[in-house]
Structures
1.
Amino acid sequence: MAAYHTPALLQASIEGLNISPGGVYVDVTFGGGGHSREILNRLGEDGRLIAFDQDEDAIKNRIDDQRFIFARANFRFLKNFIRYHDITAVDGVLADLGVSSHHFDDAARGFSFRFEGELDMRMNRNAAMKASDILNEYSEERLSDIFYTYGELRNARKIASSVVAYRSSKTIVETKDLLSILEPFAYRDREKKILAQAFQALRIEVNGEMNALREMLIQALQVLKPGGRISVISYHSLEDRLVKNFFRTGNFEGRLIKDFYGNIETPFILINRKVIVPSGEEQFQNPRSRSAKLRIAEKR
């Protein structure tokens, strides 16, 4: 499991769920199963845990436990799946939105700029569109929007223009093609950051991550019991902003809605008003946890 992925903020995220031994919980991002195993450790004989992961590689990490149900599906199908198992409400939902170390370290998956390989980036390898398809087929304007919105790259327009110029003479297939395109924009002092932002932007688009996150959060609110909790670990500002706004206001724009008396109407009670981040020791032990941010909320 540790070789597949070392979970960030493990204890804080699980403790935030305030687990009841007989409760029903959902881990919507199973991966290597680190968070799921910790939840099961705190459940009694009557407790249940449902875990989601759309990646076929995660199946081999399934846990042999009668309290455990594995769903090979995107977490955007949370509500439908628990209904299929005759569960009407749950006591807690956990989401670790980061990409597993397994994905970054597998050159064949194309998630990392560190390795040569095909520009794939699909979490679900049955999905139709790869990152290379986006680079070869999207318009320059659409590419610019992706790099700017999902990668927060200031040179998004110039990068998109370079993509279009490159593909006019050579089909973009591998990570080395994208690195050649990005080379003029990857300034020496910020090279890794810029490359990571560009790869992040493509990954988010390939997997429809932002829309899936919105759908999951809405459904989590619908299936949580009053008093049930949700723990979400995010890794970049786009995710964190959505989670923060939804927990504070019940909508993704962060729009405050007040009742007749001026009281803010929100479906959640914030368990931590200040975002939780990994300790220095955890960041040293697990460098990929450095950007992790944990928010916890309880349904009213």
Note: The longest helix spans residues 191-207.
2.
Amino acid sequence: MKSIKTIGMITSGGDSPGMNAAIRAVTRAAIANGFRVMGIYRGYEGLINDEVREFKTEDVSGIIGRGGTILKTARSKEFMTTEGRKKAYKVMQKRGIDALVIIGGNGSLTGARLFAQEYDVPCIGLPGTIDNDLNGTDLTIGYDTTLNTIMECVDKIRDTANSHERIFFVEVMGRDAGFLAQNSAIAAGAEAAIIPEDSTGADQLEQFIGRGIRKSKSSSIVIVSESPKCGAMYYADRVKKEYPEYDVRVSILGHLQRGGSPSAGDRILASRMGVGAIQALMDGQRNVMIGIRNDEIVYVPFSAAVKSDKPVKKEIIDALNILST
């Protein structure tokens, strides 16, 4: 196997708080172990277009507490094509990049897996996504910060809900995963969470109405996972039609969930994973995601990390149901 001398790093897909902490850790851990580091701007698109420059220790000074990513990020349709990946590989050869560290979510790691198969490039992934939806790791970089952001927003919305005796449907991110909705609902004392993983077949809105608002509560908060078909607006419209006696409002938190200074938890997680990525390359690992399980760094094959939906534990769903009665 070709020895690794130069490591390229990319942030790809949606940004998440803690990506900069990961960039800092990868850079410093690589340099400390004798590697050169090349920062690749704007994800895979930047690799295709040769937006690459060498990173030194001073390039990552003072960024651990910054949200977003100093490398910028983008979703690349061209990299999804055979020709696009061929262009990316030619840039790697031109720049002398021997391995890649990819900080991103499901789509980013799927792209890395395909690229590694086609060109035999050692790729190490860091789970940078607010959704917490990658398998093989207890937490993803950005999830804790986003959870706290949602909680703080819902605390403020609660004041208005109580003052006006309203039902608020609060839509949060998460794509096909309900971790943000379910756990922010517990943290903020919400009356219900409507998530895609609740596969009981029961009408979640009907359950909420029956359990909470019909009894004694004059105001309620319901956290809803974003969905093109069944988001917060869908459930609010249903209440207006089926229970017109209630005053209903919708708050879609949107992209404010992605921003902000990362929490201590995300800074530590990203730093440990960044160091872990360089250690993985030194250990001869390739095409794995760095995960954390039971507070230990683990190596998760890309095929396992992205293979299927990561389930929300039933005990967490049950806990909210109990606490909201």
Note: The CA atoms of residues 178 and 195 lie 5 Å apart.
